[in-house]
Queue: 2 jobs
Job 1
Amino acid sequence: MAVVRKHNIHIIGNPDAPKTLVFGHGFGIDQTSFSEVAAAFTDDYKIVLFDNVGGGNSDIASFSFHRYATTAGYVADIADIIHELGLAHVTFVGHSVSGMIGLLASLQYPGIFEKLVMIGSSPRYLDDEAQDYVGGFNQQSLDDLYAAMEANYQAWASGFSALAMNQPHRPELAAGFAASLTAIRADIAIAVARSIFQLDHRDALPHVKIPVLILQTADDIAVPGAVSEYMEARIPMSKRIKVYTTGHFPHISAPQEVISAMKTFV
Amino acid sequence: MTSWDSKALSFINQTSRWDKDKHIGSFLTFSINLLKSLLHADITLQIEFQDEFTARVKNAYPEYLEDMVLDPEPIKKMLYGNAFKTIYWPTIPPPNQNVLKDLLQAFSSSVIIPLHTEPANSMILLGWSEPLEMSASFQECIETMRMRLKEIITHSQQHTHFQRVAARFSAIMHAMPHAIIFINNDGFSGWVNQTAARLLELSGAGEQLPAILSDAMMQLRNKATNADEIYKEAMQLFTSPSNVITNWEWKFAYPEKSYNVICMPVSSQQVSGRLWIFEEKG
């Protein structure tokens, strides 16, 4: 099946389970980032793991600068995966940008998901002073980020990984993220970063019609606490749980916390 | 004249009166909105075939469909299977036979207008919630609108394409360390990069009148310590439009600088002029 090769799909867990968990990873990492969290649900769920095109072991020949210029290309990919695999009763677990991709997919393809878990996700990373919105970045800081990526991608990856992981006592986690980031082709990473950091899907939030769990960590460089409060206030059937760890990757740094929070929801 | 004839005429008239001073991107948006209101459609959008992986929804109503990405292959297959002619669906086919099912949920009738345009092909999708009778005069109206839409999309895409090309070449030319001056033979246009604007002490880079450039270059020449030598060379150079000069040295005293100058004709179907390149000697 072409979609399996394109996204390096792995299906684990209980094949007879009536419900399915689909995990979507964030920028710079791949499906292996969910290995510990997914393992906690293998008895009761069919579990689908995949790599976004451009990341992990996805089919690099399928990457298109047009298709992935915005999140819309990834939304279409999710719909392809769900439809091609014939999945039903799906809870989508999306980390970072994949949380927002899942949210948009639930709107464009009604009925595709029953529930949505968003880990460290944001509808807009850029501050919007006119609307009193704190996204965490101003345009200058984003322009500086793109410039740093373009100037020396390897050096940027090394510095950014430590900041984003924010686990100073476990340097191996940042090193792992850095290795994953540097495995991505630099031109693709820069294009994807631009499409993510410039997105603005705040208007979509009130239209969501499925239950949503928002997981927020303390001190996340990419997503300030105010963002998850903003989302909780605007997504009708949402609840927010704070995960007691730092950094942008709670499913890697504190998988048990994420598992506990998810079990109260799924 | 039938009401459909009048709608087709109205579409041509109103799109012809579009204010060309507005941003080109709004021309197509305006035209598709006009289609919607004239035809009382409940869904109108453009699908642009951007590459083999990307068919992107643009100018969409309802707005939530904007930017949606679809797989181009099945849609193209349908369009080419129909010889790239307009597809009329008084009744929308069942989902398993409809490659546009994600866009046409809960609609009764639809028209699909393929548009062969460069650099990217497009199609326009129209849909109605209530069943629509697609009479011969309705189809004639759509075909007339289709011809005008093709012109509009071609115009919009080419304009955007040329803007991008101009921006790219301008950025490249401004980034060059050499002073680059182009004087068009038409007497109306010239162009300098930022290094040249500084060298010639002009107020800014980019488009400049040839008269201003000639005057600035004469002043530059007069400041040269070897102005007489330069003048003699110039006389020789301009005896024939095809003459080229290289390794032409222009020397200055305050501050002490020396340039290696190249002057050559530029001639193509659209452009005829002379290119000057000043390279500062190390």
Job 2
Amino acid sequence: MFEPLFQGLQLFFTMDAVFAVLAGTLLGLLIGVLPGLGPLMGIILLLPVTFHMEPVAGMGLLIAIYVGGSCGGAISAILVRIPGTPLAAATLLDGYPMAQKGRAKEAVGIAISASALGGVLGGIVLIFLAPLLARFALEFAPPETFALALTGLLVIALVSNEATSKGIMTGAFGLLISTIGYDQFANDLRFTFGVNGLLGGIHIVAMVVGLFAISEVIVQIKSGFFSRNPDVPWVRPSLSSALLVLSRWVNLVRSSAIGSFLGALPGAGGVVSSFTAYAIARSTSKTPEKFGTGIEDGIIATESANNATVGGSLIPTLSLGIPGDATSAVLMGALIILGFFPGPNLFEQHQDVVGGIFLAYMSANVVLFFAGILLTPLFVACIKFKKQYLLPFITLLCVLGVFSLESSTFHLWVMLAFGAIGYVLRRYDYPLAPMVIGMVLGPIAESNFRRSLVISGNDYSFFIDRPIAATILAINLVIIVWMLCPKVWKNRLLLRA
Amino acid sequence: MTKNSINTESLIAPVFFLAVAAIVFWQTNTDLVEKDIASGSMQYNAAFVPEVLATVLVILAVSQIVQIIRNSGTNPVSIDAQDDASAEAPTERGLAVRSVVALVLIALYILALRPLGYHIATPMLLASLFALLNVRNPLLLLGLSIGLSLVSAYVFGGLLNVVLPAGVFEIAPF
């Protein structure tokens, strides 16, 4: 079980990898603090840079941004009542009232400590469970992989929350985009229109940068307030906040477990897990009436769950190759571009890379604690950063990052086109995450479906003759029935449960 | 006072998906047929999966359009509210124009990147964006534009070895 960790030591303890984790955590915190941005945006902006790095250093940078970004939003939520990211929305419930009582220093300290400790606990779950799941998945052949990819695709609808049909539409669009380029089974090109830039398909980085970052720039410009400068109090939390968090260890462990569990479930994510952990902490508290008035347990529950979700979300992504949300899908895409296919074979053939990723994740949480506490004044100052300076810089990062992929202006056009598409879809509440999941899982689902038919000689019973594939397909069927089930029935069933 | 109206703007997304589906069907029935990869058993039929997905898109896009048209009948739009909105229009419209201008600036930048080179096109893009976002101090605007493009060029060109376009003037300091 610990074999990957030992093997990863050599890959992780290099100047590049350690520096990448350090820089990634700081960047993540910074991006998380800035309202409107979040870990996904940070990962997308730095994604092209990682392709010039060693695999563990590159993945370490992205995972550290994920870790830092998941916590950074809490600082602005506590101090100015603006959650830097939606992930910190639940932290606002007790964080801001606590700051209003003149205890901003403690609130920020608790948030950072709980995030780091929750992240470490989530990491322990990741290190134990991911290899076990991967070992189980080693038995998988194309039918099982197809069935599992189908589960990932059905997650599209779950990720979309209320807008199921809109989510399926953007997901189907993402799947269609993944069919552009060379078809290995037909041995010819599809949907390339004679354009050379499309021969290798649409580059996922150009697509996600456009879809999320460029569309965000447009949204931010359209919302105005270019030179708004919030009034932020000066705070310097102390390292002793960790002791306070540790003294509430039941809440910490329970909330981290909730975060890890919900993180591993496709479609749930950090927002759901932090609100769930908050609700459970309140319902099990001896003084539930104090929740919402600014108490420590509220912040501990939300922030530990929030960061434990990161570890949980990496479990299915790394061991099965099934991302549960847009951030994991982008991380999975990055790993594929770096030359490593997530799934059981990754654990079999590249234990050192897996171990390096585990170590990067754990180290990012340690860095988060020290850097977060010691450099809080710096991040607080960043909340004052005006949009009019930030947006051109983000645009420059997008343009340079996408250009650096293959020194191609074609990718820049792709980025711009997806920026416009992303903006239109966001404007009319079409979720973008399913598009990324579709783009990542599309080739896996299609190739394994067609490979299964090649193996079986076009015999469809091949999918149900195999017990694991049949079980996963049955689960998929349940998900489909659940999706088609009218909302009133769903609510009734959930209430009974 | 109220009237029933279809929100034509909200039709943009479903119509876009219908257009995507139309392109897929057009390609699978022309280009893929010519290449002889759009028939036969499913594993070798390159058109099968795209056509299934395009069909899903058509069904859902049509249902969205029907829903939008139905809702327009049940959710009357207040004419007074429209009047109120038009009173605030200049600001909102101004911001909308700025967001379109930002996209146009990026498009112009992509066009100019190869011929002008990174070191001329990038400060121009940044200066235009800063100006668009109300940075009025000319020194700050120029300093930030040139400074940011140089630092970024050093990181990407100098440290990450990305070959940035030198343009006709062949400017390549890193």
